Amino acid sequence: MDFDTILPEEKKALQALARRKFSKAKEMKFPSPESAEQATPETAARYRAKRIAARVNPKVAVDLCCGIGMDAIALGREFKEVHAFEKEPEILACARHNALAYGADNITFHSADGMKAELHALKPDAVFADPSRRVHGIRVKELHQTRPSTTEIIPLLQRNKIREYAVEVSSGLSPASLPGGCEKEFISLSHEPLCITLYFGKLAGAERSLTLLPENIRMKSSGVPAKPGKNTLQQFLLEADEGIASMHLEAELTSLIPEAHPLEENWWTANTSIQSPFFKNIFEVKARVIAFSDLTAALQECGAGRVVLRMPLSPPQSRQKKTSLEQELTGNKKLHVIERNGEFIIAEAKTETIPSNYKPVWNH
Predict the structure, then answer these.
(1) pTM for the full predicted model
(2) Please, which pLDDT band fits residue 341 given cuts at 50, 70 and 90?
(3) In the CATH scheme, what is the code of domain 8-170?
(4) Please, where are the H alpha helices in the chain?
(5) What local confidence, expressed as pLDDT, does residue 287 receive?
(6) Residues 6+ apart with CB under 8 A from 315
């Protein structure tokens, strides 16, 4: 990998990131550290390519802005022929190299702006676009901010009478802010938000959906009405995958698991420990206090020796408070302190799909 211009520590971290995202990481090339961070993880690219190919006659696919090539490579496994466009020569060279690393010999790379492609001549059965959400090194998420602009990509495909197409957008957008007439699929990878994919034409299968990778577990909107009313905290506190709230799938999750009740945002509650792939963390409530000054005594009574703080604090603030609390603790348990609705909940993790202090690497 070509990261020779960055510091050794950063290079090591990026190489580790690439290994987590790509099975051929050692053989791949990236034009910049940001490209490795932004590139679609192989697991997600393969899942999406399979989904797209399953709904069309998989002969010809087009990737309008292929970047380092992972989506084009994945499409090449499912379609007989792929045309991939990239206007930046250095990025295109990496995409060609990466295709060779994966043995993808059915991709035609075009050194051109995909927005100017003669799509009618290619006769694609499906078109995919993942426009860059980094502009001058800064992450962006709004549709008009991407490069090329998502607000221009969709009309372009419609003018070219392309019916089956998919466009990746930021996971930070709400369904209400996205175009109509398509399926909005929230994709989580190891319970970290990855992206939302918009599927048009025959590629769509629901209004809204959530897909959990690598398990390939899916939940889609069904029109089930949400139940009104507030729920009170019970013995267990459950942290749902962020895609449930983002795609407004609370009613569907309640229908699937009637024992679980929504509280707010990603938090749910139940009287029993519920094992479900849609919950990434499950906590048993041990104590509740109103004032932060009462936390130390409550933690001591619960046998805590270490704490994980789930509070709206900056990293330095969190470290300072954690150190201050742990200096007074003599127990051997690792307990979580979760701040919600003006109180502090002391809880013990029964299932931790991901550590609460885990830093996402997929987000882009």
Answers:
(1) 0.91
(2) confident
(3) 3.40.50.150
(4) 8-21, 33-38, 42-54, 70-78, 89-101, 119-122, 150-159, 242-246, 250-256, 295-301, 315-326
(5) 97
(6) none
User: Cα–Cα distance between 93 and 89 in angstroms, integer?
Assistant: 6
Token pair listed for 329: 């603790």
Omega cis (within 30) before 124: no
Tokens 């990131």 -> residue: 17
Given a contact cutoff of 8 angstroms between Cβ atoms, the answer to whether 139 and 364 are in contact is: yes
Distance (Å, rounded) from C-alpha 153 to C-alpha 170?
15
Burial 201-213 (b: 16+ CB within 10 A, else e): bebbebbbbbbbb
- Write 172-175 long-range contacts (CB < 8 A, 24+): 172/141, 173/141, 173/142, 173/143, 174/246, 175/208, 175/246, 175/247, 175/248
Give the mean pLDDT of 226-235: 80
Residues 6+ apart with CB under 8 A from 294: none
Distances (CA, A) of 117 to 52, 127, 188, 318: 21, 12, 31, 50
Q: What is the DSSP string of 161-179?
A: T--SEEEEE-TTS-GGGS-
